[in-house]
Specification:
heterodimer; A: about 100 residues; mainly alpha; elongated; B: about 160 residues; 2 domains; globular
Chain lengths: ~100, ~160
């Protein structure tokens, strides 16, 4: 197996996540796109861990997984709060601070 | 080696199509289910790379818990369960340009730097090596992440509580 095939797949997933974050209005879908980007990062970490025969990459992948779980928990709580205050989960509605 | 490359190809094709599904579908529930395919494919890639422990943690934490949280989020915010046009904003083309630009830059960099670099796997990573790494070299980050999870748990409860 080439190292590049995993890196290119990860790059594609990351770019797709960027597209999703920028082009989606629904906040739950934006969070899902962020998960896509974190999955791409994990793929890179594990690929380099296998290439360098160093287990530190897999350890960091585990840490990224943990952070992602915490992020989704807090993120969905914030989304719920936005929905409760604005009766909508669309991020375009959150413009109170706009000049 | 050939079997591994074929498995990689199948998983990668499924992941690419499902990732495009996550960002392009007009149904929120379908997006969550496409995300399951991407993450399961990622777990398959981890197994190909010999990282079995990370693969199963990905299945348990991501597919088992995070996706369920997303579906709760979809239901609690009364997102439309049917297909709807109202999920995207008017930044579709700028977003596509940024995504393509990023993919191009990263792809060119990887092809330039890591062309023909082979991954040579002797055997899957033993779980004991990972536990050694976590509890010997990275014990302080491990504890910090534990405290962070507790803080996130309390923060989420405080934020989402009604009153």
């Amino acid at each position: 197996m080439l190292l590049n095939q995993f890196l290119l797949l990860g790059a594609f997933l990351f770019a797709t996540g960027i597209y999703g974050v920028l082009s989606r209005k629904n906040s739950v879908l934006v969070l899902m796109s962020i998960e896509l980007m974190l999955a791409a990062v994990n793929l890179n970490l594990v690929a380099f861990s296998a290439y360098l025969s160093n287990v530190a990459g897999q350890t960091f992948a585990l840490f990224v997984l943990t952070i992602a779980a915490a992020e989704v928990g807090v993120g969905l709580a914030i989304v719920l709060l936005i929905y409760r205050n604005l009766r909508s989960a669309d991020l375009d509605e959150v413009d109170v601070l706009k000049g | 080696m050939i079997a591994q490359n074929v498995a990689f190809g199948i998983l990668a094709a499924a992941m690419v199509l499902a990732a495009l599904g996550v960002v392009r579908t007009d149904n929120v529930v379908h997006a969550a289910l496409y995300l399951v395919v991407v993450l399961a494919g990622g777990a398959g890639q981890f197994i190909l790379l010999g990282a079995e422990f990370v693969a199963w943690v990905q299945v348990l934490v991501y597919i088992g818990a995070v996706i369920v949280l997303f579906l709760f989020g979809v239901m609690l915010t009364r997102a439309p369960m049917r297909a709807t046009e109202d999920l995207g904003n008017d930044l579709r083309w700028p977003a596509a340009v940024s995504g393509l630009f990023l993919a191009g830059v990263l792809g060119a960099l990887f092809v330039e730097e890591f062309e023909d670099v082979e991954i040579v796997l002797d055997e899957p990573t033993a779980n004991s090596l990972i536990s050694d790494s976590v509890f010997r070299n990275y014990i302080i980050p491990f504890e910090v992440v534990g405290v962070l999870l507790l803080a996130a748990l309390i923060g989420a409860i405080v934020l989402a509580r009604k009153d």
